[in-house]
Amino acid sequence: xxxxxxxxxIEARMREIGASQSTVAKVCELSQPHLSKVLNRKIKLAKKxxxxxxxxxxAPTEAPxxxxxxxxxxxxxxxxxxxxxxxRMQFMQLLAxxxxxxxx
Length: 104
Hints:
The structure is a single chain. This protein is an all-alpha fold. The chain has two domains: 3-58, 434 Repressor (Amino-terminal Domain) (Orthogonal Bundle), CATH 1.10.260; 70-102. It contains six helices and no strands. The mean pLDDT is 90.
C-alpha cells in the first residue's frame, strides 16, 4: 500500500472506531508526537512505522465491553458501604490506580 493511502486508511479507521493518536501510538509502539508528525505528513513514513501501522489497520477490532447493569453497580455500592472505612479507602485507591492505567 502506498504511504499516503495507508495514512488515509489509518485516519479513517481511527475516526470509525474513535481511537486517539495516543491509543494507536501505544499499540504500535510509537510515541504520540511521532505518530502525529507522520499523520500530518510532516515527516516521511518509514518502512518500520508503516509495517506497524498496517498491522494495526488489519488487526481485528475488539467489541466494546457492555456497560455494567444498574443492578450490579448498586450491589457493588452496597457492599462497599458495608466495609470498614480503611478497607473502603483501599478499594477507592485501587480503582483510582486502575483508572490512571486505563487513561494513560
